[in-house]
Amino acid sequence: MANATQDMKAAADTAAETMKTNTDKATEAARTGFNGFADATREQADFGRQAFQQTADAGRDMFRKTVDGSMAAFGELNAQSRRNMEAFADSAAVATDTAQKLSAQAAAYGRKAMEEQVAVAKQLAGAKTFQEAFDIHTGYAKSAMDSYMTEANRWTEVMTSAAVRAWQPMNERAAAFVSQVNAR
């Protein structure tokens, strides 16, 4: 019986030792598992922070580029508007110059025509026959018509030249705009 008691005691000691070893192993596994879980959680948190930081940095860079691009576009728009206004002013200057030239030509033509009419009226008053008056009047009508056609041709040339010169700055701006649009 002593042997049996000793065997039981040895078996109990062995079982206790095994249980203690298994508990230590289980505790170590739990601790390791917890540490592994904590490490994995820390790694995920670090990864999340890095991803958030990268996204925030990319967003900030995108915002900065967008603002810089918008400011550059506004600057270019301002420059385009200034050049358009300069072209309009150049066109208006040509139109004003042309109007002054035409006004001076009209005054000169009117003065010349009036002088010719007075001269013809004096000649008609001095005509002795109907045929002579008819010839004076016919000559005046032909001369007046020739003078009018010459003046009309001069006006047409001035107006055509002015139209080309007045539209040139606007055409240049339109061509620059089309070129800029095509470049994009």
The structure class reads mainly alpha
Q: What's the gyration radius in Å?
A: 53 Å
- Provide the helix percentage: over 70%
Please outline the major beta sheet. none
Give the ordered list of helices and strands: HH
> How many domains?
1
Overall shape:
rod-shaped
Could you give the count of β-strands? 0
Number of helices: 2
Low-pLDDT windows of residues: none
Distance between the termini: 104 Å
Strand % is under 5%
Mean pLDDT: 82
Outline:
This protein is mainly alpha-helical. The chain contains 2 helices and no strands.
List its salient traits.
single chain, about 180 residues, mainly alpha, 2 helices, rod-shaped
Notes on the structure:
The chain is an all-alpha fold. It has one domain (42-183). The chain is 97% helix and 0% strand. The protein contains 2 helices and no strands. The protein has helices spanning 2-125, 130-183. Helix 1 (2-125) runs antiparallel to helix 2. The relative contact order is 0.06.
